[in-house]
Amino acid sequence: SIRKQDKDGISVRDGMDLSICCLDLESNVVEFSGANNPLYILKATSNDSANIPISMTENGYNLLEIKGDKMAIGGAENSKNYQTHQVQLQKGDAIYLFSDGYADQFGGPKEKKFMYKRFKELILSIQENTMDIQKETLNKTMLDWKGDLDQIDDICVIGVKI
Predict the structure, then answer these.
(1) Is the dihedral angle over the CA atoms 69, 72, 73, 78 positive or is it negative?
(2) Which numeric CATH code is attached to 3-161?
(3) DSSP per residue, the chain
(4) φ and ψ of 40, to 5 deg
(5) Are the C-beta atoms of residues 21 and 31 closer than 8 Å to each other?
(6) How far is Cα 161 from Cα 28, in angstroms, rounded to an integer?
(7) Is 13's pLDDT higher than 90?
(8) What is each CA distance from 66 to 35, 72, 82, in whole angstroms?
(9) For residues 16-27, average pLDDT
(10) Which has the higher per-residue pLDDT, 59 or 61?
């Protein structure tokens, strides 16, 4: 439960970050809403960027980032609605939803966080691969990164190729 009480009976509010999308497979339109989490859309540089700012470009692909709203689910009382974004995708595009666990994982030679910049570069670097190989690459990269350190959070990456 998001709402909890500590041992002294004081109400504690703990929020949850998440993202959700709905993909219409006939029209290739994706609807996205996020609570502190974004949606990444990968498009070949030759494809229209759908008026979404390009976050990073590499290997002939643009990484477009639709940011989620800066408010968690639950937590502080909030009556604001979350924005819903609609994007027309094209054949060959890919979308990625993910938790913060990959970017927040400690590891590497200096035992630092993986970080979102490195995560974006990784996602861009694997676009020529099938989704199965992308999954293997993401898994291997994370195992190599964290080494003998403990995993500190859930790690979830969902990718869909149109």
Answers:
(1) negative
(2) 3.60.40.10
(3) --EEE-TTS-EEE-EE-EEEEEEETTTTEEEEEEEB--EEEEEETTS--TTPPEEEEETTEEEEEEPPBS--EESS---PPPP-EEEE--TT-EEEEE-THHHH-EETTTTEE--HHHHHHHHHHTTTS-HHHHHHHHHHHHHHHHTTSPP-S---EEEEE-
(4) -100, 135
(5) yes
(6) 11
(7) no
(8) 12, 16, 13
(9) 95
(10) 61
Q: Cβ(40)–Cβ(89) under 8 Å?
A: no
pLDDT of residue 6 exceeding 60 = no
Q: What is the pLDDT of residue 79?
A: 65
User: Which residue has 């290997």 as its token pair?
Assistant: 59
Query: How is residue 76 written in tokens?
Result: 């502080």
User: Each residue of 92-142: pLDDT tens digit?
Assistant: 999 999 999 999 999 999 999 999 999 999 999 999 999 999 999 999 999
* Residue recorded with tokens 């959700």: 20
- Would strands 85-88 and 29-35 be described as parallel, antiparallel, or unpaired? antiparallel
